Amino acid sequence: MTTEEPGVVTMRTRVGCPEVKVTVTIDGVHIPYQQPQIVEAKALSRNRQEYLYKVVRPYLSDANKDATCPCPETSL
Questions:
Q1: Nearest 5 degrees, angle CA 30-CA 15-CA 29?
Q2: In whole angstroms, what is the distance from residue 33 CA to residue 41 CA?
Q3: N or C: which end of the chain has fewer CB within 10 A?
Q4: Residue 46 to residue 73: CA distance in whole angstroms
């Protein structure tokens, strides 16, 4: 599905068959394109930050440790 053709899906009916376009509808009504609503993430609790730092961080690559599980003292 694309923004140029909202509600239109490109698919194949069988392997090797040409692609066909199908309009997706709900009870025969065309589905309008809408941007998804932005959901703001809540801040992590101090306990969750400490858990991530102590338990999860050791399993991450060095390149991802600071971005994913920073030290709780520096992340607040």
A1: 5
A2: 24
A3: C
A4: 9
SS3 20: strand
Residues listed for the chain: 76
Whether the Cβ atoms of residue 35 and residue 19 lie closer than 8 Å to each other: no
Nearest to 21 by CA among 13, 11, 29: 11
pTM (whole model) above 0.85: no
Q: What are phi and psi of 70, to 5 degrees?
A: -70, 165
Q: How high is the mean pLDDT in each 10-residue block of the chain (76 residues)?
A: 77 88 73 76 92 96 94 69
